[in-house]
């Protein structure tokens, strides 16, 4: 974690005349200044960080967003865009001088175009709702973050979100074909759009996706849809150890198979899940469980599943089950996706790490993460996208315990350093936000960071969109250690 | 003006770097020939060349094979910087399904290496066998296999580049998911050397499918194949590629299916039932020859352009193209799933035809991008202009990577 902002920061109220102007645009009820109601917006999914915004504005259209941003930027007030607030890196954390601009009211699907397999929607549309709406057309939206029942497409665009099935289908940026964005000062700009000349211009849509609210606000999103898979096969491999499960992942991927998803759940997570309302029949005495899924044309799926089963057994699986009933498959996935929630049974707080490593390094890295946990006396539960090498060690703690919090910070940093050392990166899908901002020098030198700052300045010359996120402060001249790397 | 007259290029690079590279200047039709060729052997030599160019107010055009840089015009002396001497695989761990190679490494060479492990790069742009990995990333042209596998830009995981002012950068990394900072790889892929010189690329690989079958339907004209093509494109499956092709007066429709034998059989049956047709199925060398002929049709043509619109308007798009080019012996290869057609032809008097095509395609809400045309016309003047916003932001990105405008 980066150094948390001071909790309970004093609120600097937005001057009444500005509140009045904002209310004139979005309506009085959609400008929140009441300190009690502002508490809802003091953090996102990374609850260790809390800052109360000066106000929250909830516009309903691109035009309203543009006019709100124009007013706030003219007054030098920072704008923090916010989707559903499910982000795990503090990307939607308010700033002390900032006003949160929430997308909750911009939740309409504007068009579904089955002929071209496209949808156009507002950023507040919930990820899973898009697939529900397109399913009658035989289509769906592929990226499926674990929070998909709550998280929004706008947040997915900001974070370039992934999900279990991104192993086969790729992350958000592969599916976003066009954007309407509100940039600094309220300028409305169209980027891309299906049917446009991708052969002629720079990929500005791809640049905007994953910019974590630092460039502007996406107010309309055009996405590509895929045809629903004809069939699906879901396997549950039961292993005595995480290392065995890790080797099975490598074996499956090296065998030429292309699973839709491969997920690992470790023993600590299994026990938390099976004690919760999300219990799905994962054996509590297993060292690790592997969920492997194949989808596509019905014919051939059984053969793929057979080959994956052999890989698991060859690497020491004590048993491989098949979820033959849709209800069983749904239960396995619900449990997997709700695992973070079930962690509450173990500790009141958790920090979800998101480093990614080359897949072949998984067995080694999992052992070393366990050792890091032991050395700092921090309980770590693992549940992650094994096929992508995208780890999610959950560091469990109680933030009221200052010593424990400090040990979590050290352990977290060591895990990131470890993952970078083996050829990985600090975040695979959750984003940098404020959480990993100060660890950016682990993966970027100062020249590269300066390049990122320049791109931020191109879109946001006055630094008023989501300041303090992603980019660490410039290193002091002559400084040997990069910013944020002191311990 | 003599290029770099105060400080000759030979002062900053090795003699070997100044030896003409074989085949490295195949099609540098930019309005003027390069004033010099240089083939750096290392990232440091690329840095030296770019710093020299900035100091001497010279321009640099990065090229892989040099076959695909005819989209701009050189108004001043320039050096063609070839990556031909920067070759070789740096990291290849088959179990990770990722590979890092220097930019000048040929796709054919990579294919040989990865094929030993039954892995491949699922891209099939025109001239694929002659392209380099750096050139592929710079061009960002995937080919019709994007339908089943996604675009090049989705599978470039990392790059090392040297910016126009000599700054060397690493973008991305070696892992398949990475959001540590803004995604600078996306604008770099497809920038065609305007932002930086790409010196190495890391890509995601895929398992070679058990079976690669091509379904074929032939006809006397494209228009009669469009309904079948659209039926396949909207069928409830995801073929690897869907292509309509017109070459030497013959029209054909090709659907490529990948997977296990029983999967491909089932997909073929379903598509035939859905479209109400019966395909001829080709596999092995016969299929490979057919695919290569379609992929590379028009590769040597004087005019090369891409026309795009929504996939549902494919018929109207093809009508616009063929209407504007009536009487011209042209190659049209349409990616049915993307609604994009590659058009190639040779001969004089093309400007009016291209402008007529632009007007027709733009009336459909689409765009035309000219990638290559003879030197007496400007590709930019014949292409659909970018929106002012996209142009302004794009120029801003260009200034960040290449503040002195060294790169053409």
What would you say about this model in short?
The complex is a heterodimer of chains A (487) and B (408). Chain A is of the alpha+beta class.
Descriptive keywords:
heterodimer, A: 487 residues, Uridine Diphospho-n-acetylenolpyruvylglucosamine Reductase, domain 2, Uridine Diphospho-n-acetylenolpyruvylglucosamine Reductase, domain 3, Vanillyl-alcohol Oxidase, Chain A, domain 3, 3 domains, 7-stranded antiparallel sheet, globular, disordered C terminus, B: 408 residues, alpha+beta, 8-stranded antiparallel sheet
Counting copies of identical and different chains, the oligomeric state is heterodimer
Strand content of chain A: 15-25%
Largest sheet of chain A: 7 strands, antiparallel
Q: Termini distance of chain A? A: 11 Å
Spans of chain B of at least 5 consecutive residues whose pLDDT stays below 50 are none
Based on the coordinates given, report the CATH architecture of the largest domain in chain B: 3-Layer(aba) Sandwich
**Helical amount of chain A:** 25-40%
What does the main sheet of chain B amount to?
8 strands, antiparallel
Note the beta-strand portion of chain B: 15-25%
Class computed from helices, strands and strand pairing of chain A: alpha+beta
What would the average pLDDT of chain A be, to the nearest integer?
91
Number of strands of chain B: 18
């Amino acid at each position: 974690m980066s150094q948390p902002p001071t909790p309970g920061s004093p609120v600097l109220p937005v001057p009444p005349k500005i509140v009045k102007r904002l209310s004139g645009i979005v309506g009085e009820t959609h400008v929140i200044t009441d300190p009690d109601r502002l508490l809802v917006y003091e953090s996102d999914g990374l609850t260790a960080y809390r800052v109360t915004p000066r106000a929250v504005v909830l516009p309903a259209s691109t035009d309203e967003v543009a006019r709100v941003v124009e007013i706030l930027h003219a007054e030098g007030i920072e704008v923090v865009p916010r989707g559903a607030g499910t982000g795990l890196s503090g990307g939607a954390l308010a700033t002390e001088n900032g006003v949160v601009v929430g997308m909750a009211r911009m939740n309409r699907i504007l068009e579904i175009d089955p002929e071209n397999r496209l949808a156009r929607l507002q950023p507040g549309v919930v990820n899973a709702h898009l697939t529900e709406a397109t399913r009658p057309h035989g289509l769906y939206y592929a990226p499926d973050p674990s929070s998909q029942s709550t998280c929004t497409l706008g947040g997915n665009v900001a974070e370039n979100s992934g999900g279990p099935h991104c192993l086969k289908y790729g992350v958000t940026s592969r599916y976003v074909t066009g954007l309407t964005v509100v940039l600094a000062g309220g300028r409305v700009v169209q980027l891309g759009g299906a049917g446009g000349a991708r052969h002629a211009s720079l990929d500005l849509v791809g640049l905007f996706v994953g910019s974590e609210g630092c460039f502007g606000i996406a107010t309309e999103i055009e996405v590509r849809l895929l045809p629903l898979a004809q069939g699906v096969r879901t396997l549950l491999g039961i292993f005595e150890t995480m290392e065995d499960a890790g080797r099975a992942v490598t074996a499956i991927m090296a065998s030429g198979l292309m699973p839709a998803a491969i997920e690992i759940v470790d023993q600590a997570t299994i026990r938390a899940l099976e004690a919760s309302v999300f219990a799905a029949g994962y054996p509590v005495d297993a060292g690790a469980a592997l969920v492997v899924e194949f989808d596509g044309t019905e014919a051939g799926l059984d053969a793929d599943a057979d080959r994956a089963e052999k890989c698991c057994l060859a690497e020491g699986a004590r048993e491989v089950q098949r979820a033959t009933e849709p209800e069983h498959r749904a239960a396995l996935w619900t449990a997997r996706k709700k695992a973070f929630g079930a962690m509450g049974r173990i500790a009141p707080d958790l920090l979800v790490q998101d480093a990614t490593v080359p897949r072949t390094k998984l067995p080694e890295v999992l052992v070393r993460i366990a050792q890091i946990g032991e050395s700092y006396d921090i309980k770590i539960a693992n549940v992650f996208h094994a096929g992508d090498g995208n780890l999610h060690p959950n560091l469990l703690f109680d933030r009221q315990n200052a010593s424990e919090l400090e040990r979590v910070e050290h352990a977290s940093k060591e895990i990131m350093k470890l993952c970078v050392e083996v050829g990985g990166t600090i975040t695979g899908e959750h984003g940098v936000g404020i959480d990993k901002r100060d660890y950016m020098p682990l993966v970027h030198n100062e020249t590269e960071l300066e390049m990122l700052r320049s791109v931020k300045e191109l879109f946001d010359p006055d630094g008023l969109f989501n300041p303090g996120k992603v980019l660490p402060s410039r290193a002091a001249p002559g400084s040997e250690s990069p910013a944020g790397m002191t311990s | 003006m003599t290029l770099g007259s105060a400080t000759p290029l030979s002062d900053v690079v090795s003699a070997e770097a100044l030896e003409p590279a074989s085949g490295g200047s195949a099609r540098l039709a930019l309005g003027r020939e390069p004033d010099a060729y240089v083939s750096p052997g290392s990232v440091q030599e690329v840095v030296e060349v770019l710093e020299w160019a900035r100091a001497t107010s010279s321009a640099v055009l990065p090229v892989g094979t040099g076959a695909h840089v005819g989209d701009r015009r050189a108004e001043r002396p320039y050096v063609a910087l070839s990556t031909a001497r920067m070759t070789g695989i740096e990291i290849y761990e088959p179990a990770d399904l990722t590979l890092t190679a220097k930019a000048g490494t040929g796709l054919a060479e990579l294919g040989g290496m990865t094929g030993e492990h039954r892995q491949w790069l699922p891209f099939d742009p025109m001239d694929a066998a002659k392209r380099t990995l750096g050139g592929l990333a710079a061009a960002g042209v995937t080919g019709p296999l994007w339908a089943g596998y996604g675009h090049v830009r989705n599978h470039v995981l990392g790059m090392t580049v040297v910016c126009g002012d000599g700054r060397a950068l690493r973008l991305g990394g070696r892992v398949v998911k990475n959001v540590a900072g803004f995604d600078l790889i996306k604008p770099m892929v497809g920038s065609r050397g305007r932002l930086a010189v790409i010196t190495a690329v890391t890509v995601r690989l895929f398992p070679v499918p058990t079976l690669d079958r091509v379904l074929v339907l032939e006809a006397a004209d494209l228009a009669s194949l469009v309904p079948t093509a659209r039926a396949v494109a909207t069928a409830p499956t995801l073929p690897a590629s869907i292509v309509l092709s017109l070459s030497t007066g013959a029209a054909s429709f090709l659907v490529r299916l990948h997977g296990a034998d029983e999967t491909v059989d089932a997909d073929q049956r379903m598509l035939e039932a859905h479209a109400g047709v019966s395909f001829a199925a080709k596999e092995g060398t016969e299929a490979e020859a057919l695919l290569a002929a379609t992929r590379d049709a028009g590769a040597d043509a004087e005019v090369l352009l891409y026309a795009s619109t929504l996939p549902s308007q494919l018929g109207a798009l093809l009508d616009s193209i063929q209407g504007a080019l009536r009487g011209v012996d042209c190659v049209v290869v349409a990616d049915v799933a993307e609604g994009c057609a590659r058009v190639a032809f040779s001969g004089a008097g093309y400007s009016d035809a291209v402008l007529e095509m632009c007007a027709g395609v733009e009336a459909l809400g689409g765009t035309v991008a000219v990638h290559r045309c003879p030197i007496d016309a400007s590709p930019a003047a014949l292409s659909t202009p970018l929106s002012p916003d996209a142009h302004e932001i794009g120029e801003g990105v260009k200034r960040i990577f290449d503040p002195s405008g060294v790169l053409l």
